[in-house]
Amino acid sequence: MKTTRIERMYRVALRLYPPRFRAQYVEAMAQALRDGLGDESIQFRSFLSLVVLDLVISLAKEYGAMIRESLSRPLLVLNALVLAGIATGVALALYVIPLNMLRSGLNDPQNQMAGDLARLLAKKGMIPIASSAPEERIDMAQSLAPFVIVYDDQGHPIASQAVLNGTIPSLPAGVFDYVRQHGEERVSWQPVRGRENGVRIAAIVRRVDGAQPGFVLAGRNMREVEARIGNVQTLAGLTWLGMLGLIALGTLGVAFFTQPPHADLASHPTA
Amino acid sequence: MVADKTRPSPLTPVVLAILLSLGAEEKHGYAIMKDAQTPAGGSVRMGPGTLYGSLDRMIRDGLVKESGSSDDERRRYYRLTSVGRHVLAAELERLDAAMSAARSMGLIGHGSRS
Lengths: 271, 114
Fold this sequence. Notes:
Chain A has 271 residues and is α+β, with helices and mostly antiparallel strands. Chain A has helices at 3-14, 19-38, 44-71, 74-105, 108-124, 127-131, 173-182, 223-257, and strands at 138-139, 147-152, 157-160, 162-163, 184-189, 201-208, 214-221. In chain A, β2 and β3 form a beta hairpin.
């Protein structure tokens, strides 16, 4: 290969260096290559392989140095941090807003059912309802259909449209205490605790007033909505990482094209 | 971080080789590269990218300065500054002390050159 051709290729490769470095040293580096290619005391191939390897290593070093110098430019760092903060806020909003909409929308049928049934039981009493329990009960682990459970004033189940593992699950006593005082409670209820992928129920518990007081729980399996929330979380996370990546690339781009002249750079330890 | 010129940390082989090469007289890039490859220069193989990258940082640290260029301005010449000379001397003393210690511990022969 002719030396002029090698030099032409080397000059093309030198364009990869950061602009400031290129502007200062490209001619001197090309001259060093010419000197080496014309030096008969050294092996041509050995010198060429040294130059190629050196090109790769020194490119990485110069870009590393450029990044370190960029980090010492407060305005650039501040700009990147502000943009990263905005990106984090946007990603959080992308997660929190759909999360709230999905979670609150999940309660809509239960809200209506619990309210209607609590009013009906307050008017007609608990016993007739308790005796009219359906024969076919919903399996709350499998079905996504909303269901109701009626509890007496002590929190014992009287009637239920749904079962879990063949039984009517009990609510924690604290929930009944809260509902006695406040009239209503909305909870994400996990009837069987400690199990991985256990059933989680979006439940609304209402107080039944009247001659025979008690409680009505209207619930619904959260499985599908939780899967959607998981998707939203993944998308928001990917969006966040993507935005941070773009900010990092943009900051490096700005650092690349706006490198301060040599004299303006802070002193660095020799390496 | 600013390097403490009076108490320098151990130098990298490339920086030491460049300082050694420029110790006697000013030189241009390729001459420094050739010097560095010799046993007396540290047997360091470096290409133009490593050489000028290191020179760039050494100029910034005040160890080396550009002293001129050839008529066609393609060759640039460099020489040591007084700080660079001081750092080189300090590094050589440090290496000499290490060699003496190694000799006294019998790690190298007394006939070995330091």
